[in-house]
Structure formats: C-alpha cells, structure tokens
Specification:
It is built from 3 helices and 4 strands. It has a 4-stranded mixed sheet with strand order 2-1-3-4. It is of the alpha/beta class. Helix 1 (17-32) runs antiparallel to helix 2. Pfam families: MIF.
Length: 142
C-alpha cells in the first residue's frame, strides 16, 4: 500500500483538500502502477516549518511503497506532486522536498497479519465492549 504523507506550513482552512487528496491519489497510483484502492494520502497543514531559512510556504513529503519506486519513477513523482502543491496550495516547486522509501513486503505485512490475527480472536471479534474499556478496535477487511 503506497502511502504519501505530506506536511506543509500552509493553513488548509478553506482549501479544497479533497481535490488535493484525489489528484495525489490518482497520480501516485498511475506512476507507481498500483490500484488507487491501495493508495493512502495524508495531508497535514499549519505545521511549523522553515525551509531555506524562511517560513514562506513549503512542504515536506515522504512516500513509502512496496515496490514500484526507482530513479525514473521518483523523478516523475516529485515533479507531479510538486505541480499539485503549486497549483492547489501555492507552494513553489523549489520549496518542496519528497523522500522515498521502497520498503519490503514483510516489513508492512507483519502489521497487517497482526491485525488479522486480532480480528480472529473470538473474544474480540464482533464483541461489544463496555464503554469504560480502554481500547477500541476497528479492524477492516485485510
């Protein structure tokens, strides 16, 4: 599951974040070659951030993917995400930095298997827990 996490010092109040998320999702999916259903985009605004010694609009991103990344794809992703941020959030392309992590399946799958195992525990699966119970489990389809 590719995950693009973007932090920016731009205030997102009044911004159509849905269009940013949608465009970023389709861009990442297309360039990495994975279905949109597997892509996650996280966008955080109003993050205290300085770039080049100033607090002018800037952004930092990290993209984690199991495969699909290489020098050519990374270059295309950087340019495409920078275009989205410049168009939608008025962040100059020169004030955006994107870091890539090409992870291995076993590094992400262990967590998914753990969640799946929890879902299989009869005492937790489908159980109505009292409101004072300190944990809330929301386990989706894996």
């Amino acid at each position: 599951m590719p995950c693009l996490n973007i932090s920016t010092n731009v205030n997102l109040e009044g911004v159509d974040t849905s269009s940013v998320l949608s465009e970023a999702t389709s861009t990442v999916a297309k360039l990495i070659g994975k279905p949109e259903a597997y892509v996650m985009i996280v966008l955080k605004g109003s993050v205290p951030m300085a770039f080049g010694g100033t607090e002018q609009p800037a952004a930092y991103g990290e993209l984690v993917s199991i495969g699909g990344l290489n020098a050519d794809v990374n270059k295309k992703l950087s340019a495409a995400i920078a275009d989205i941020l410049e168009t939608k959030l008025s962040i100059p392309k020169s004030r955006f930095f994107l870091k890539f992590y090409d992870t291995k399946a076993h590094q992400s799958q262990e967590y998914a298997q753990c969640l799946h195992a929890l879902h299989q525990v009869p005492s937790l699966a489908g159980m109505d827990l009292p409101s004072e119970f300190p944990f809330h489990f929301t386990i989706g389809h894996l």
